[in-house]
Model the fold of this input.
Amino acid sequence: MARRPTLACLTVLAVALAACGGGDDDSDDVEQTVRDFVTATNERDGDAFCGELVTQEFLEQSTGAKGDQAEDACKEQLESVVGIRLRLVKIRETEVDADRARVTAVLEAQGQRQPPRVLRLVREDGDWKLAGGTGG
Done:
């Protein structure tokens, strides 16, 4: 009979650990969004960058356009960028709080290591998207 309480405790522990694992999945998803953002920037992939990886609010603020026109303006701006090459050196820290996240990342641009950047992400339409960032 002593085995039943132990088995019950192990079952409860396994369920609790599985529930905690959801945060790790979110962290992985958030970090993948940052990696995809760097790739889309380097490949000038406007469909991914403007349509999947940044929030609508970010699009509208950065382009000055509204609605669908913001995505079109973003694509035009991205195509006109020349000579910028990014490399994700390291993700130092990832914090997820419900539908918001912050990633502290070290990037290299044109072969020069940049100060750490804090990238803000939000969950929009079920996907993690970049909402902005700051230096150092």
In short: The chain has a mean pLDDT of 83. Strands lie at 86-97, 100-109, 112-113, 117-124, 127-134. The CA atoms of residues 65 and 74 lie 9 Å apart. The chain has one domain: 23-134.
